[in-house]
Amino acid sequence: MPVLERIQAEVENHPLVLFMKGTPDYPMCAFSSRAIEALRSAGATHVHTINVLEEPEIRANLPRFSNWPTYPQLFIHGELIGGCDITLELFESGELGRIVAEALSE
Prior knowledge:
This is Glutaredoxin. It comes from Pseudoxanthomonas composti. This protein has 106 residues and is an alpha+beta fold. It has a single domain, classed as 3-Layer(aba) Sandwich (Glutaredoxin), CATH 3.40.30.10. Helix content is 52%, strand content 16%. The chain contains five helices and four strands, in the order αβαβαββαα. The chain has helices at 3-13, 30-41, 56-66, 84-93, 95-105; strands at residues 16-20, 48-51, 73-76, 79-82. It has a four-stranded mixed β-sheet with strand order 2-1-3-4. A hairpin with a 2-residue loop joins strand 3 (73-76) and strand 4. Helix 1 packs across helix 3 and helix 2 packs parallel to helix 4 (84-93). It starts with a helix and ends with a helix. The relative contact order is 0.21.
């Protein structure tokens, strides 16, 4: 499967997808660590994660797919939400909890 089709399938088949450096238990950059921490604090009991350090094709092509240059990248129901800063802003405003609850209840 071509990499852009694989990325499309990942974001369509999981309500919450975080493309990150490392894993939720062992994030490999501070931005990925803060994003997964915010998601967990917002009630995301399950987030489908892709470790872009172990997926070089995805790491190279996701910015082209999403038009977003950096990692992590959070997708909810196939839509790019943003990176670490946007995730943290949504968490601090209380919106992330609402978005996560809606995504996981569907």
